[in-house]
Every structure is written in C-alpha cells, then in structure tokens.
Amino acid sequence: MAAPPPSAAPLPPRPAGVGGWLASRWELVALVLLAAAPLCIPALGGALGGQVTTLFIYCILALALNVMVGYTGLVHLGIASFFGIGAYCLAILTVPMYPFRIGFLPAAVVAVLVTAGTGLALGAPTLRLRGDYLAIVTLGFGEVAKVTLRNLEQITGGMKGLNPVPPPGAGVTVAGLDLGKAFAIDPRWFYYLSLLSLAGVVLAMRRLETSRLGRALVAVREDELAAQAMGISATRVKLSAFAMSSAVAGLAGCLYAASLSTTADPNAYDFNRSIMVLCAVILGGLGSIPGTILGVAILVGFDTVLAPWADSWIQQMNINPSGSSALSFSGWRLAIFGLALVFVMRYRPEGLIPSRRLAAELHEEGP
Questions:
Q1: I want to staple 77 with a disulfide (CB 3.0 to 4.6 A). Which of 112, 123, 139, 361 is the partner?
Q2: Dihedral sign, Cα of residue 249, residue 250, residue 252, residue 257
Q3: How many angstroms separate the CA atoms of 178 and 97, rounded?
C-alpha cells in the first residue's frame, strides 16, 4: 500500500501548560484585552478609535478571503468587490435619498444575503477553473463590479458615492439614550460594534475549522480528486466557500460604510485593496485565524496608524520643513513594507503564525 500523503500525517500537538492554554483560548484573551482597552486608553475615544475600528473591519474582510485562499486553496483576486457590494447595499437601504430606510440591522442582513448570492453567481460558472484561470476570472469580476458601481450614477451616486449613511441605531432610543447620536459622537460605539462583529466571525471560523464542511474544504484544497473519491462533493464545497467568503466580506462592507457615513467612491474597492488583503493573509499565514489577524494588524496598522504618526512626529521635530517626500515616512512606507514582505517570504514562507497543518507540511523532514 502506498504511503499516505504528507497532509494525512498527524498534526503536531499543541504545547502544554500556559502556552497551550493561550494557544487554544487566545480569542477570549484578546477579546477581553481589546474590550478593556478604551477604558484604559483615552485616545481610543478619538481619532485612534476610528483607526482601530478600521483595523477590525479589515480583519473581518481578511478572514473572509482566508476561507477561499487559506481553507479551500482557491485564488481570489476580487474580494474587494464584495466588500463594496455590501457597502452599497447597506447604503441603498438606509440613506435618506431612497424610500427604504429600513435601519442598520435589517439592511445589513439583506446586504449579507445579496453578497452571498452574488458569490454563488460568480462561483457557479467557474467551478472547473483552478489556479491562474480562477484568479483572472475573479480579477475581472472585481473590475466589472467597480466600473458598474461607477456608471450606475442614478443608483450608486457614481464617483460621489452614497451619503450620508445613517449610523446604527439611528432613531432608536434606549433608556433615554439616542443610539444614533451616540454612534455619531463617540467612536467607541463603532469600536465595540466592530469588535463584537469580529469576535462573532472568529468564533464562526473556529466552528468551521472543526466542522464537517471545514474538513471538506481542506480535503478539496489538498487533493480534489481524492476528496471526490471519498464521497465529498467538490461542487458543493466550492460553492459553499464562495458564498461564505462573499457573505463575510459583505458584512465588512456594511460596517465600513456605516463607520465612514458614506460608501466612498467605487475606486475604494479596486484591485489594490484586494491585493492588500491577500498580502495580509499570506503574511500572517494561510489558513490561520490568528495569523490572518496579525497580518492585517501589521499591514493595515502600518499604513493607517504608524505612517500618519511617524509623519506627524517628523513634522513636530521640524526634520522635514520643506515637505519633501524623500524625508517623509509615508514616501517610503511601501518600499519598507515590500522589503519586509520579501524577507518574510524568503525566511518564513508559511507566514508569521501559520496553521499547524501548513507548518507541518512545509517543515516535514524528508526520508
């Protein structure tokens, strides 16, 4: 009998003791720390709170892409299009210029269902495509979606986008507190809403990993023919991956539009954003939930938090009085990140926090 493939080898055990407990309960520890952070860091009640909220939203988007790329092994270069579809669906159902105005929660549910259906519509005709061919199709869909949003000016507002998008809880009063006004004034409300949404997505992804569907996703990724021989429907598995990934990306788009009070212009959901999210997933570790979150924290945090802070510090120290881009941190941020990505891929190709399965495969000793 032939030897089993490397992917069939047993996974290395988790470390024992405190390290093992943290490895298996890191979500709870991180949630408690992040929930307590606004109480200890006053800056989270200001601009920093908005920046961290954006990080949470991008973490949700990256986890959506991880379902496709990390779990199922399908290259997806159009995740930003579903991000945008979710944002525009929420806006159409809530902005004053349209008669719907059904509120944030029901609008978000509809937007998630619409993006899931769109994912199924994209996945159905591409089931036989793999690798570069699927990547090209998803890339093309992303460009088509962006151009469509831009040209449907009567519906999407064209390059101006749709605004103002009402905050969650607009018009709702609980115990004398106007929720809409609270969301509009205090960034910590959006902070906690995004954190709660992220926690829910992480919990769902953990359940998916240990479920029958999650194991089927990995089986199709490792060897589709062998998976089919074992009775797994590759068609159903791939369509499920498309639907789940699109739905979670749509949820991220809803939170993004609500936090900004606008959809922004369609160029905000272009190929560059899809590539940025893909880089975050690869940098952190394919198929790894903590790795994906760390990749987003490094990549998006570097661009939205560290770079503006560094530029502000350079200006305060009067290091760059002429405003030259050569002496600004933002002028070099892409080069710095590019070099860091090259070094990570060269010396740690499995990512910073890889999944146990991927780490075992890449570091397996030969005979």
A1: 139
A2: positive
A3: 22
- Residue-wise pLDDT tens digits, 68-119: 999 999 999 999 999 999 999 999 999 999 999 898 999 999 999 999 999 9
Among 189, 241, 251, smallest CA distance to 57 is for 251
φ/ψ of 96, rounded to 5, equals -65, -25
Q: Which residue has the tokens 């998008």?
A: 165
Query: With 0-12 CB in 10 A as exposed, 13-18 as middle and 19+ as buried, what is 209?
Result: middle
Residues 26, 206: Cα–Cα separation, whole Å: 12
Nearest to 279 by CA among 290, 293, 295, 291: 295
Which candidate, 91, 69, 71, places its Cα nearest to that of 79? 69
Closest CA to 87 of 66, 67, 60: 60
Would you tell me how many other CB atoms lie within 10 Å of the CB of residue 137? 19
pLDDT interval class at 7 (50, 70, 90): very low
Q: What is the pLDDT of residues 13-47, one digit of tens each?
A: 555 555 555 556 677 788 888 888 888 888 888 88
Are 333 and 307 spatial neighbours (Cβ–Cβ below 8 Å)? yes
Q: Which residues does residue 90 pair with via DSSP β-bridges, in sequence order?
A: none
Angle at 230 between CA 227 and CA 235, to 5 degrees: 50
Report the distance separating Cα 250 and Cα 85, nearest Å: 7
Token pair in block for residue 6: 């490397």
Domains along the sequence of the chain with CATH: 40-287 (1.10.3470)
Alpha-carbon gap, residue 51 to 44, rounded angstroms = 9
Are 251 and 87 in contact by the 8 Å Cβ rule? The answer is no
Q: Per the structure block, which two tokens stand in for 171?
A: 């018009």
Yes or no: say if 243 and 116 are a contact pair by the CB < 8 Å rule.
yes
Tens of pLDDT, residues 254-301:
999 999 999 999 999 999 999 999 999 998 888 899 999 999 988 888
How crowded is the C-beta side of 131, counted as CA atoms within 13 Å? Answer: 1
Angle (CA) 180 184 189, round 5°: 80
Supply the pTM of this predicted model: 0.88
Tokens of 73: 């092994």
